[in-house]
From TrEMBL, chain A:
Gene3D superfamilies: TerB-like (1.10.3680.10). It comes from Sinomicrobium oceani. This is Tellurite resistance protein TerB. The lineage of its organism: Bacteria, Pseudomonadati, Bacteroidota, Flavobacteriia, Flavobacteriales. InterPro entries: TerB-like.
From TrEMBL, chain B:
InterPro entries: MFS_trans_sf. This is Uncharacterized protein. The keyword Membrane applies. The chain crosses the membrane at residues 140-159, 192-213, 225-246, 266-295. Keywords: Coiled coil, Membrane, Transmembrane, Transmembrane helix. The lineage of its organism: Bacteria, Pseudomonadati, Bacteroidota, Flavobacteriia, Flavobacteriales. It comes from the Bacteria. SUPFAM superfamilies: MFS general substrate transporter. Residues 97-124 form a coiled coil.
């Protein structure tokens, strides 16, 4: 199992995702708490998280480009693997993000599984995006 | 597994079927104009009838406004957007509250477990990684009871031995009086106070060596063992020198002209020499061991005490954190109830219907235009016409004032009416 280092870019993506989840009815308060702890455990600073929590939301825009969407979701998958396991809650959260990002609901299960598998294997994002393009 | 392409397909955005209502609006405006014109003609522009007609138009528009889902949807939009913004804020605050309450619970649990630890550590120190004997106190006091007399013994022995070795003039050859000198201090005082200080402080050099052995033993590592061995050797040599000096003095008194000169060989074969070494060095080793032992027992007490002390500190810190959380909690709770109030207010607006002044005034103007035009067309007398028009203008103002839409500042503002 490859251990992943949570880079600054990854953290940035997560904070934006966290922001997005607040304006989504599919995420409830318990999940938001879970995601907070999730981020805290992965080295995202409390200040950054509290900043999201305590400041009024500015319009959080979901990325429009497919590659951008995939990049965000893939980064989340990488973060999920950071502790070497995928919990049920984490899986559900990833699924909800996939739905929020406008992917077909029929394929959500496969999509999340795919992202998690590739993240576990440590496939670089560029190669993943290349694969999607060529398919 | 489906092809990757399928998996990564995005949902198609439904384009909102927005039908243009411009045409309808024009039509409605015309209807209002015609209705105003017709009614005016029938009532010959009567101001009282005009007032009643305006009221009728108002009520009619209100009814239509309420039924017009599309218009309502449009009017509600800003309220719905505001509500979803408030919902987001509420969710954030609730998340904060949840996280804080969780932290408070954790802190409280920690404090309870710390309190428990403070009691439990005395009973079961191993549980907390403190390795100590079961009865540290008894062993400590027994050790102390042994150590004190040995300390006195060492004091007495070294004072007298060093006095004998360095300053005493031998007159008799009895062994006991050779080694042991009952009035060592008093005699040393006679020689001068420096002599007295010298013999009185020499035992502390030995005890200092014993203390060093204990300290080196505490630390791990080969080098420390080497140091301990060196210390033992130094003490032994020191003892041997004392014994040698005493033995030399005795030999000098006893010697006959035929005796060979005193040397180490003679000293090593002498009973007094070994007697002095055993009475000093061996007892010194015993003193060192007992001292080491009771220091360890004392450390054990200390371990439990310092463990309890850290726990007390921990509890204090946690309690401070708790207070801090409590202080932060209250404003968040207030904010939550404030936001909830706003949301339910917005929800009432959304559930109710919204009356648009702006829209109403547009149709109202058409109706009035129709009414006035009919007066202009059908009333021949100019005076009568003027009178009717000015009275109708008054009536119109009154009507607008009745419904609080007379102020121009309000134009374009949305009025919400709750069912």
């Amino acid at each position: 199992m490859k251990t992943h280092v949570i880079s600054t870019a990854l953290k940035g993506h997560f904070l934006r995702l966290y922001q997005i989840a607040f304006s989504d009815d599919n995420f409830d308060v318990l999940e938001m708490r879970m995601l907070y702890r999730f981020a805290e455990d992965r080295g995202i600073s409390k200040e950054a998280l509290n900043d999201v929590l305590l400041n009024p939301s500015h319009q959080t825009v979901i990325p429009e480009e497919l590659s951008q969407k995939v990049a965000y979701l893939y980064d989340l998958a990488i973060m999920i693997w950071a502790d070497g396991k995928v919990t049920e809650d984490e899986h559900i959260a990833l699924k909800k993000y996939c739905i929020k990002f406008g992917f077909m609901e029929d394929h959500i299960e496969e999509l999340t599984r795919f992202l998690l598998e590739k993240a576990r294997d440590g496939m670089p994002l560029e190669i993943l995006l290349e694969q999607i393009k060529t398919m | 597994m489906s092809a990757l392409k399928d998996i990564f397909t995005l949902k198609k955005n439904d384009t909102v079927a927005g039908t243009h209502t411009g045409h309808d609006e024009k039509q409605i405006k015309l209807t209002f104009f015609e209705s105003g014109y017709g009614s005016s003609k029938q009532a010959q522009g009567n101001p009282t009838v005009f007032r009643a007609c305006l009221q009728n138009v108002y009520m009619d528009y209100k009814g239509k406004c309420r039924q017009n889902e599309e218009l309502q949807k449009e009017l509600r939009k800003p309220y719905e957007e505001e509500k979803s913004r408030q919902d987001t804020e509420l969710k954030k605050r609730k998340t904060v509250l949840g996280i804080m309450e969780e932290s408070i619970r954790d802190l409280e649990n920690k404090i309870t477990s710390y309190r428990h630890d403070m009691v439990e550590v005395k009973r079961n120190p191993e549980k907390y990684g403190i390795e100590i004997d079961k009865r540290p106190k008894a062993q400590f006091y027994i050790g102390l009871a042994v150590l004190i007399p040995i300390t006195f013994y060492l004091l007495v022995f070294y004072i007298s031995a060093s006095f004998s070795a360095f300053f005493k003039n031998f007159v008799t050859t009895a062994l006991t009086s050779a080694i042991f000198s009952g009035q060592a201090i008093a005699k040393a005082m006679e020689d001068g106070w420096l002599t007295a200080v010298f013999v009185a402080t020499i035992p502390f050099a030995f005890m200092g060596l014993g203390y060093l052995i204990h300290m080196f033993q505490k630390r791990k590592g080969k080098w420390n063992y080497v140091k301990i061995i060196l210390l033992f050797m130094v003490t032994f040599v020191f003892d041997a020198i004392l014994a040698y000096m005493i033995e030399y003095k005795i030999y000098e008194i006893e010697k006959t002209p035929s005796s060979p000169p005193f040397d180490l060989k003679i000293a090593l074969s002498s009973v007094e020499f070994w007697g002095i070494i055993f009475a000093g060095f061996v007892v010194y080793i015993i003193w060192g061991l007992v001292f080491d032992f009771i220091m360890k027992e004392y450390d054990n007490f200390d371990k439990i005490k310092s463990f309890i002390k850290t726990r007390v500190e921990d509890i204090k810190n946690r309690e401070r954190d708790l207070l801090e959380y409590d202080r932060k909690l209250q404003p968040i709770k207030e904010e939550i109830s404030g936001i909830e109030g706003k949301i339910s207010d917005l929800q009432r607006t959304i559930d109710g219907f919204i009356f648009s002044n702006k829209h109403y005034l547009m149709y109202h103007a058409e109706y009035v235009k129709g009414w006035f035009l009919a007066i202009a067309d059908d009333v021949p007398s100019e005076k009568r016409r003027e009178e009717l028009l000015s009275r109708c203008v008054e009536e119109e103002k009154g009507h607008l004032a009745d419904h609080q839409i007379d102020n121009e500042n309000y134009e374009g503002r949305l009025y919400k009416l709750v069912n």
